[in-house]
Write a structure and sequence with these properties.
Layout lengths: L3 E7 L6 E7 L3 H9 L4 E5 L2 E4 L1 H11 L1 E2 L7 E6 L7 E4 L6 E2 L12 H8 L3 H5 L28 H5 L1 H25 L10 E5 L5 E6 L10 H4 L2 H7 L3 H11 L8 E5 L5 H10 L3 E4 L5 H17 L2 E6 L4 E4 L1
Parallel strand pairs: 1-6, 11-12, 12-13
Antiparallel strand pairs: 1-2, 2-5, 3-4, 6-7, 7-8, 9-10, 9-11, 13-14
Helix pairs in contact: 10-11
């Protein structure tokens, strides 16, 4: 089927708009290219920003200038703020964050997709629920989590349909953590780079966040390298993801949050609970430094009914905490 994509680029100052169009273009492939393009290279007012000259060169290489009124898809790329960039079908008022396009698997080169998701036949074949206690102090439960994780009993896991279902779930968990890892690289913190994404109950990415200073606060190397100052100014990745959703007017009630590189501290746990997030996924084993804070977080999550999971990328296992 013939599809069209009308790309709208908002320049960094937000007052000028340059129109491009791509006829007979694959929307998913175009969205993936825009979401991962090299013109996203800087930080502006606490948000990832794009280089205008590089963005123009990129768009001129894949599309033509000019307005296309009959476009089926519209991409709005705000060079001043990555998280404000979005896409959707023409005439549809709902918008999807551009970052969600990274997860689209249609019309994407299989090699690129495998590099993005870490997916391979042997990788998927090792999918299993870890029934052992591990260093993170987590144990497997057959209890179902809302949305992404479905109940998998021993009998179901031995059934072929059960195994395929688990493989599919683990595939998406892996993908979401790849995105959280990408987001973590945007942090300027020289010692800890943490990324978080919030995913809605339909699998849509609602927002993302990384550990950094508030918008407009100068994030200089001197401040980051002075611990006393850094700790007073930094906003944790989980908190930034929640606040970014609020900033864009999006609800996170019933959503899941994926945190790459560190466990959840008690302050972020409070925010997660108060925001209405129902599931927490981490991919970090808890060391002694973070154990006390994590114990308080686990206690609060348990009392409030927030389900927690630990994902081991190396073993491709998911365990209930």
């Amino acid at each position: 089927m013939t599809t069209y994509a009308n790309i709208r680029v908002k320049l960094r100052n937000g007052t000028d708009t340059v129109e491009f169009h791509a006829c007979d273009g694959a929307p998913d492939q175009l969205g993936y290219s825009l979401a991962t393009a090299s013109f996203w290279e800087g930080i502006h007012n606490g948000s990832v920003a794009g280089n205008e000259a590089l963005a123009m060169n990129f768009l001129e290489s894949v599309a033509e200038k000019g307005f296309l009124p009959e476009a089926d898809y519209i991409y709005e790329v705000d060079l001043g703020c990555y998280s404000a960039s979005s896409y959707g079908k023409s005439g549809d008022e709902s918008r999807t964050p551009l970052l969600q396009a990274v997860l689209a698997d249609r019309n994407i080169n299989p090699t690129i997709l495998r590099l993005l998701t870490g997916e391979s036949p042997s990788h998927l074949a090792s999918a299993q629920v870890n029934s052992r206690n591990n260093e993170c102090g987590v144990t497997t439960s057959s209890e179902s989590g809302a949305g992404l994780i479905s109940a998998i009993t021993p009998s179901a896991s031995s059934d072929s349909s059960g195994r395929e279902n688990l493989k599919s779930r683990l595939k998406w968990v892996s993908r979401y953590f790849k995105i959280a890892e990408l987001v973590s690289t945007w942090s300027k913190d020289p010692s800890s780079k943490v990324g978080a994404i919030i995913v809605g109950d339909k699998g849509q990415i609602i927002s993302q966040g990384y550990n950094g200073f508030p918008r407009g606060v100068a994030d200089t190397p001197e401040r980051y390298n002075t611990r006393e100052i850094k700790y007073k100014l930094v906003v944790h990745a989980e908190m930034n993801a929640i606040l970014n959703a609020l900033y864009n007017g999006s609800s996170v009630v019933g959503a899941a949050i994926y945190i790459h590189n560190l466990p959840v501290c008690q302050e972020c746990a409070k925010a997660i609970i108060q925001a209405g997030i129902s599931e927490v996924f981490i991919d970090t084993r808890v060391n002694e430094r973070w154990q006390e804070a994590w114990n308080f977080s686990k206690m609060m999550f348990s009392e409030c009914g927030v389900k927690c999971y630990y994902y081991n990328e190396q073993e491709n296992t998911l365990t209930t905490i």
